[in-house]
Specification:
4-stranded antiparallel sheet; Rossmann fold; 39% helix; Arc Repressor Mutant, subunit A
Length: 229
């Protein structure tokens, strides 16, 4: 475990599970804050953003999907959210990601997996980084999912947006096809080629209205962004 530890906010109404998670995280040197309902969890996350939020879906006061949506709208930086829930249907996971979750862990879970996912989220989202990301003339607001290029709005569906965000966060590095699939779909990747149609939509929105393409194919390697400014 790397030092210093993470500060993790657990929003979970089950007292026994909160205690279990606290012991697990604190044993590895992480600091833990708690909320037993959605409204309190949202207020804590906005007042003092944690490194990672572990968020249950079935919460009193304000359920988990709404907490995540409001966090994305109101926070001044990106707070990585790991949704923790007994709902394991693909449709539930899709709703979670559409609400702004970064990862999804189904109960019951192994403690080692939860620890690994929290650490991976903190690394992936560069804890404490401002909510606005820039690559040349491209600007991405992680809070609202608003994208502009040279000041012009770029309208994107969810999956092309997630692909663009992954490429922007990795810039100037090239991401392989398998890295893109993992970042967007995790372990739930479709069986057929999931990238082709979504990359086409991304190119049409990001590059077609402009004289210079930003999304580049690195043959034999993968894809990268090439800033135009």
């Amino acid at each position: 475990m790397t030092a210093p530890g993470l500060r993790v906010l657990i929003v979970e109404d089950n007292l026994a599970l909160r205690s279990q998670l606290a012991g697990l995280l604190e044993a590895q040197g992480h600091r833990v804050d708690f909320a037993a309902d959605g409204r309190t969890g949202l207020a804590l996350a906005l007042a003092d953003p944690p490194d990672v939020m572990v968020l249950d879906l079935g919460l009193p006061g304000l359920e988990g999907l709404r907490v995540c949506e409001r966090l994305r709208l109101e926070a001044d930086r990106h707070v990585p959210v790991l949704m923790l829930t007994a709902r394991d249907a693909v449709e539930d996971k899709v709703r979670g990601f559409e609400a702004g979750a970064d990862d999804y862990l189904v109960k019951p879970f192994a403690g080692a997996e939860l620890l690994a996912r929290c650490l991976a989220l903190a690394r992936r989202h560069r804890v404490g980084e401002p909510v606005r990301l820039r690559v040349g003339g491209l600007a991405i607001d992680r809070r609202t999912h608003a994208v502009t290029r040279d000041g012009q709005p770029v309208e994107l569906p969810n999956i092309p947006y997630q692909l663009l965000l992954a490429l922007a966060e990795a810039w100037p590095r090239t991401l392989t096809r398998s890295e893109l699939v993992q970042k967007v779909w995790g372990e739930e990747a479709p069986q057929s080629d999931p990238l082709r149609s979504h990359l086409y939509v991304l190119r049409q929105a990001l590059d077609r209205p402009f004289p210079t393409p930003m999304l580049r194919t690195v043959h034999g390697v993968g894809f990268k962004l090439e800033p135009d400014a």
